[in-house]
Amino acid sequence: MIQSAHLVLPDGQRLDFRIRPSPKAKSLRLKMTVRDGLTVIAPKGLSESRIVELVSGKGDWIAARLAQFGEVQHLLGEQVAARPEVFDLAAMAESWRVEYRQTKARTVGACTDQPGRVVVYGAVDDNERCKAALRRWLARRAKAALSPWLGSLSAEGGLRFARVAIKNQRTRWGSCSAQGVISLNAKLLFLSPSLVRYVMMHELCHTLERNHSSRFWALLRQFEPKTDSLHGQMRDAWKMVPAWAHPVQKGRDLI
Predict the structure, then answer these.
(1) Fold that domain 142-240 belongs to in CATH
(2) How far apart are alpha carbons 159 and 52 in whole angstroms?
């Protein structure tokens, strides 16, 4: 019979995993995949507390594997089975602690109850709903933080846009429509301020130059002299985003 357990990794992240007892196993074996997360094959009769203790000793290895998975997680649209206990929003120099509160509600929500603390409440035994609630919270925080930032850069550069939309896109940091609507990815909050500014200036320049022609890059370099360096850094920017922040694709919906 498959059991469920959890441990807290060195970075404070909670990792839920499955225990599969096996009469043939002579020692503990850890199996990790992007889609299934961590499965522990354990000798039959080994207690759950002892299994958690042994798995905790592999915390650094598990964290390294999760970091590798994070590099491709946004492309697969699947979630490593983990929900955060703490996380940082580098763009705003903010650190947040997450508290989970079980209530009688069948749904799950998330709110800020004091500076630096997010409370996830409701049916918190459902990890996917918890992470979805945190993603909705992240979108609200992004709207409050990124919208005025974009407005300020727009005013400084004289680059006008129609309005801003905050989304949780899987493969794009931002976009600009023909109507001047700029979409920004809520996950920009996990990036450094310099990279966030670069993305914003990139999209603002698209209000004048719709494609990536030489004229577009020349325009962008006028507003951001470090364009070439920052553009290169953006290739690895997805590594800064924790797995829980990526949406899960179900049919045509992103949650």
Answers:
(1) Zincin-like (3.30.2010)
(2) 55
